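Task card 7
Instruction: Convert sequence to structure tokens.
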Amino acid sequence: MKASEGLRVVVTGATGNVGTSLVRALEREPRIASVLGLARRRPTLSLEKTEWAEVDLSLEGDEPRLARYIEDADAVVHLSWAFQPTHDPASTWRSNVLGALRVFDAVAAAHVPALVYASSVGAYSPGPGNGAPVSEAWPTHGWPGAAYTREKAYLERVLDTFERDHPQTRVVRMRPCFLFKEESASEQRRIFAGRFFPGWLMRPDLLPLLPELDGLRFQVMHTDDAADAYRRALVRDVRGAFNIAADPVIDTTALSVLLDARPVKVPSGAARGLLSAAWRLRVAGASPDLFDAVLRLPLMATERARQELDWEPSRTSMEALDAFLRGVRAGSGDATAPLTGRRVG
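Output:
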């Protein structure tokens, strides 16, 4: 498509947390002519520039249909990712790794000019012992114990080869921290806390105590701010990886202020044991291996995104977490199957 006509963008995983924010951001971008959102289930979300199509990236045999959707794209944004079932890592491997390979192959076959891929802080190797923020040059070998981090790290190696073999395609790897918004809260509660965790319990008056874990420090950002970074990467001539995160860094002190709760020291081993038992009983959605990975995540420096994308988050990390907690308590959602709102279930 000629630049004067605007860009045609294909977004996989367009009905999820980041996808719904991104398609709305692209609606407001004059350099984007049209968006094709791909998802396993067609949403009722109606947007002026956006059309929808159904595709399951985990299925063999859907490649011809995927190729048709991508063949005349000016850019592809690959967001699609399955966090569950954590009890069946082969299933998430099929969805996440093999699904991504199908997208990358279609991009290469169609000679798409730009590929923007949703990597993650989870792709990084454990951070330095001094806790200093890492740049995009930090090794991306993940934490080998968790399926999520293994898959993210593996796809980083796949993209190393892709960039070598297809230099004509501009490849951008976005590496965000944890992303929250009110509309995704019900989905994230189901994914990580379990389907039967009642959202209304997330009230300060019902949570007087907060477990304090050694080494728990992480970064958070509002999903809409991440979508803005993706939008900027689409319309600028940039390549490579970009760390994106908001301030301040979240630790037990910050959480205690947000939840109006008193921190209580809890050994990490005890917390892991409780989570492991809940996970094995299929009460909790998050696996103990993911807990191990979170405790080892590095903090990320974001200078490159701020300088080359001219990007700044519009909300603090505390505001993003507050929006998420509001959504959990209210059972907030959106007009897509993954983001359906529920307080329980």
